[in-house]
Write a structure and sequence with these properties.
Chain A has 218 residues and is α+β, with helices and mostly antiparallel strands. Chain A is built from nine helices and six strands. Classes of the chains: A alpha+beta (218), B alpha+beta (211).
């Protein structure tokens, strides 16, 4: 595969060679992630009915002018099924961890309509305040019956948790002034603020009308 | 410093922390931290940098960046300060650090190096070198052994902190690197331990000075 040059200074990542260069990102843009090599993530995608199974948020976008060549993201994630590593919870990473290996990951990027700079800053601050917050996961063994039975999937999706998408929903909801909160509710239907935080999943955000896609729409 | 005393004074110190301040940690128990303290003849066994101040985050304490077993990571400082019965903490500062220097430190070094892996073989080689250099062939053999084990593109806690200051502040390099020859400078950089940070006169003590 030939490498296209993004500009004079940058080389495309492996994923950008497939989907094209990632456009200029802004703080609080939402990253959607698909894990191609995880069976549990496959079950999860089936249950939530989405191409995506994980979400993260842009903290500091790449900015060549100020010598920042990496996009920094924040995500709530449990490492791997049956991992011996303790649960990590909310952590800060480089976006490269997902764009460098297209066999293992695919990513898409969405942006909430009409956010002001101040609102973006508030979302980012909220996320930073939650660094190290523990991950409260869906129970993995329930994924299997959820994969085969609709009632089990419904039970699974209604469990209380603090997850990748729940954290993103909460960050946007808390960052907005009262009158603007409707603009950042991703889950369709009538939900209380607490339910929104606990029940929103990556599919809700990806399918929301409050999001515009800027990269690799699915 | 005793836990009760730390508990009392720390809130005041935490409010004064600046981006780029060097944090030194002493774990009161644990075989690995004890080994590092013993082999480096130092009170301290771990180090990190202040990434964001308390004022930047409103409701939580500062964020710190440190090299841990999974690589360069950002965490809340409270993972240490909530457990003073386990950890003691010291603070050093590179004097004359301007606001633009701090920003440069964050953007050009810390964020660019997030997720860089931890150099386990370096810490292993440092411990091994210090443990055995008095018994076998003295330092020459073990220095060459150590150099083979070091990965220059990954860090341990103290080499990350040291490299951060070397990278962002090239004009002040001579102040930070006090060794004479280039070879010594390179060796020093790669073998830099928390004890070196504690003893380095280029950084001033702000809180809890211990060698």
């Amino acid at each position: 595969m030939t490498k296209q040059k993004k500009n004079k200074f940058e080389i495309l990542t492996a994923l950008e060679n497939i989907h094209g260069p990632i456009p200029e990102l802004k703080a609080a843009d939402i990253i959607f992630i698909r894990h191609n090599k995880s069976i549990m993530r496959r079950f999860l995608r089936k249950i939530i009915g989405s191409y995506w199974d994980h979400s993260a948020l842009v903290l500091y976008p790449r900015d060549v002018v100020s010598n920042r060549t990496k996009t920094i993201i924040i995500e709530a994630k449990k490492p791997a099924f049956l991992s011996i590593i303790p649960m990590r919870g909310v952590a800060i990473h480089q976006l490269d961890k997902y764009t460098a290996n297209p066999k293992a990951y695919d990513i898409g990027i969405g942006r909430v309509h009409g956010l002001s700079e101040q609102q973006r800053e508030r979302v980012v601050t909220f996320m930073l305040m939650n660094v190290d917050a523990p991950y409260w996961p869906w129970t993995h063994w329930l994924l299997l019956p959820g994969y085969f039975f609709k009632f089990a999937a419904r039970y699974y999706l209604n469990q209380q948790r603090f997850s990748c998408s729940g954290l993103i929903q909460k960050a946007f909801y808390d960052a907005m002034d009262w009158d603007d909160k409707q603009q950042v509710i991703f889950k369709s239907g009538m939900w209380s603020p607490i339910e929104l935080q606990e029940l929103t999943n990556p599919a809700d955000i990806a399918d929301s009308e409050n999001i515009e896609w800027v990269y690799n729409e699915r | 410093m005793k836990p009760a005393q730390l508990q009392k004074v720390w809130p005041k110190i935490e409010a004064q922390l600046q981006i780029g301040d060097i944090l030194l940690f002493h774990k009161r128990k644990g075989p690995i931290s004890r080994a590092i303290q013993r082999e480096t003849s130092s009170y301290w066994n771990h180090s990190g940098l202040v990434f964001l101040r308390k004022q930047d985050l409103q409701y939580t304490g500062p964020l710190i960046v440190e090299a841990l077993n999974l690589g360069i990571e950002i965490h809340q400082i409270k993972k240490y300060t909530d457990f003073f019965e386990v950890f003691d903490i010291g603070v050093k500062r590179f004097s004359g650090l301007t606001g633009s220097d701090q920003e440069k430190l964050v953007t050009t070094f810390i964020l660019e190096n997030l997720d860089v892996p931890y150099d386990f073989s370096r810490i292993f080689s440092i411990l091994l070198t210090k443990e055995f250099r008095n018994y076998l062939l003295r330092s020459k053999f073990f220095f060459s052994f150590t150099k083979r084990l070091i990965h220059v593109d990954s860090y341990i806690c103290s080499s990350f902190v040291h490299e951060a200051y070397l990278q962002f502040s090239k004009a002040d390099r001579n102040r930070i690197e006090f060794d004479q020859t280039e070879l010594e400078k390179i060796e020093k950089r790669e073998m830099y331990s928390p004890s070196d940070l504690a003893r380095d006169d280029a950084f001033e003590w702000v809180f809890n000075p211990q060698k």
